[in-house]
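Morning run. Coffee first, then this:
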Amino acid sequence: MISKIRLLLEYNTYPIWLYDEDGEIIDNDNPPEWDDDQQLTDAFMALSDYYDTFFIDNKHEFRFVGSTDIADDTKLKSLVDHALAMLYAKNNGKYLIQNDIRINLDSEAEQQE
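And here it is:
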C-alpha cells in the first residue's frame, strides 16, 4: 500500500515517487488508481520535459546548466503550480504528499543539496 507521494525533479525521470509505509520506494509513476489519468500524466510530463531542458546531455558532456533567464524560472514555477494543484485536488487527503521540488535553479551546487 502506498502511504507517501514524493515530488522530486530528477533528470529524465517522472517526478512522482511512490513510497510504502516503511519508506521504501515502490515506483516513480502515478498511484495505480490514477494510472489512466492522462491530464495528470501530461501535467507532470510537461514539468519533467521542461526541467530536462536545463541540462546539457550529449555524448561529450552531461551537466546541469540551470535556467537562462527569469522567463524560464517563471515557466517552471507555473508548470509546478499547475501539476501540484491537480495532484492535491485528486489526492483529497488520501496520501501524504512530500514536495521536494526546488524552484531555484540558479546553480548546479544548489540542485545537488
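The mean pLDDT is 88. Good start to the day.
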